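Progress note, sequence design subtask.
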């Protein structure tokens, strides 16, 4: 046994965990060294030269893509906020919040299952099961998304009726057309990532769609010099999403192994459904956590405060852009390392990842807290009232970043059921806090509810994952709290 490793058995679960010593877990490791170590640990192709090139390209490309996507999202929200104002932007954000909320049940958890199972089937060269899973997931997701779209349309009428406040009803109805398009795009992106096409598996949603949306918005304003409406902005989003779906479908067809295209598909419907439903539950609860504040804020306070809060939340999303970028990159590797019982490498990868995430998040939070009012003024004077909410959400997102990729760690080590329970408790807390705080505090109340729920679910989930796998997800931790000597 190497000097920097030791074996301990987890008190809960049946996993033998070989954990690093204090020297390996030393908190002073720099982010640059952590990234170097992380790259060395991710498993993949057998040829080490090709593996290194592939992983460097994927990691650097993912971060570059995430930065570009974040910049495009900032530019999109800046343009829409300046052109629509707080009220018009609120109507647009409210419609898109409903699409985000319904897109998760529309996929039925298969977008998460595809990443894991396609990677496994590819490693096993089980082409018939891969073909069966791709076909089955496409059919069931298309049917489900159409049903949800049809069911949600009358809800909009109940909420807004004939008054159609600020065009919110028409914007919502038009946005619902995105539901099946978005769901099918997510499936194709997940299949691409399962085939280790990490960059291509992110480009349609993170680059192509936002780039097209910005182009449409800018072109409409420059060519026609007319006031942009929330309805037109939603229409641009629908068209951009449709083009992204076409691109993702084309790429998947190109990289799919030839054996998959010719083999007779094999289906395991009930095992797939049993595995997908906990993933669906986790994803649904997470999206409730992320979107319920918009829904309830719109119901209690109207479009204007939704617009202010939407900008605040978009700005604070920058804090965890590294978290979301790294999670996409390492998700297949978590499953592979855990399946091979390479717990030392898995712990090192998670620790290095968490350090990188936190090292980037801290200075961003400092800038947002210090210059929040000036940053919000870029979107217009209507949005400067969200300064306090910006500070509250920044603190919440900092805690979210500090716990590392704990969500992906839980899901890809086969702990979906416990994860669903924990995230469900946090979502229930989020809903109750929003109902309690929004009527009195408005935007600030929604921010407080979100920040508290983020802290609670990350803490509970990190403890749960450690007790089941022996892996610690946080960047820096009091070792005695985790029972590590």
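Output:
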């Amino acid at each position: 046994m190497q000097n920097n490793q030791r074996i301990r058995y987890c008190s809960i679960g049946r996993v033998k965990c070989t954990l690093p010593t204090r020297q390996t877990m030393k908190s002073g490791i720099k982010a640059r060294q952590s990234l170097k170590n992380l790259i060395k640990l991710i498993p993949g192709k057998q040829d080490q030269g090709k593996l290194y090139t592939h992983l460097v390209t994927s990691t650097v490309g993912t971060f570059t893509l995430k930065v570009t996507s974040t910049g495009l999202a900032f530019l999109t929200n800046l343009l829409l906020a300046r052109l629509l104002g707080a009220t018009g932007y609120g109507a647009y954000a409210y419609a898109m919040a409903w699409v985000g909320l319904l897109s998760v049940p529309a996929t039925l958890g298969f977008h998460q299952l595809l990443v894991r199972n396609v990677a496994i089937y590819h490693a096993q060269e089980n082409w018939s099961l891969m073909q069966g899973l791709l076909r089955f997931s496409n059919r069931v997701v298309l049917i489900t998304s159409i049903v949800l779209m049809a069911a949600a349309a009358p809800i909009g009428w109940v909420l807004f009726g004939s008054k159609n406040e600020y065009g919110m009803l028409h914007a919502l109805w038009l946005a619902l057309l995105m539901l099946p398009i978005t769901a099918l795009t997510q499936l194709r992106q997940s299949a691409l990532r399962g085939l280790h096409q990490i960059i291509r598996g992110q480009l349609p949603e993170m680059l192509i769609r936002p780039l097209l949306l910005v182009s449409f918005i800018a072109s409409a304003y420059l060519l026609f010099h007319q006031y942009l409406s929330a309805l037109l902005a939603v229409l641009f989003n629908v068209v951009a999403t449709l083009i992204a779906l076409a691109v993702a479908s084309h790429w998947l067809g190109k990289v799919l192994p030839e054996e998959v295209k010719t083999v007779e598909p094999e289906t395991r419907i009930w095992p797939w459904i049993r595995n997908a439903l906990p993933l669906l539950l986790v994803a649904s609860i997470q999206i409730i956590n992320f979107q319920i504040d918009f829904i309830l804020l719109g119901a209690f306070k109207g479009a204007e405060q939704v617009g202010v809060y939407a900008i605040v939340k978009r700005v604070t999303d920058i804090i965890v852009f590294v978290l979301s970028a790294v999670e996409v990159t390492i998700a297949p590797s978590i499953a592979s390392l855990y399946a091979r019982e390479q717990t030392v490498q898995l712990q090192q990868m998670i620790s290095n990842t968490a350090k990188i995430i936190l090292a980037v998040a801290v200075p961003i939070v400092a800038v947002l807290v210090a210059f929040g009012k000036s940053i919000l003024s870029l979107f217009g004077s209507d949005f400067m009232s969200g300064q306090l909410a910006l500070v509250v959400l920044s603190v919440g997102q900092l805690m979210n970043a500090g716990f590392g990729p704990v969500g992906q760690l839980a899901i890809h080590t086969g702990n979906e059921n416990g994860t669903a329970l924990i995230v469900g408790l946090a979502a229930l807390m989020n809903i109750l806090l929003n109902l309690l705080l929004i009527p009195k505090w408005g935007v600030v109340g929604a921010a407080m509810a979100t920040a508290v729920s983020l802290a609670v679910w990350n803490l509970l989930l990190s403890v749960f994952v450690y007790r089941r796998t022996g892996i610690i997800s946080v960047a820096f931790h009091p070792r005695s709290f985790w029972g590590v000597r």
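Residues 1-49, 480-485 have pLDDT under 50 and may be disordered. Work on this subtask will continue into the next period as scheduled.
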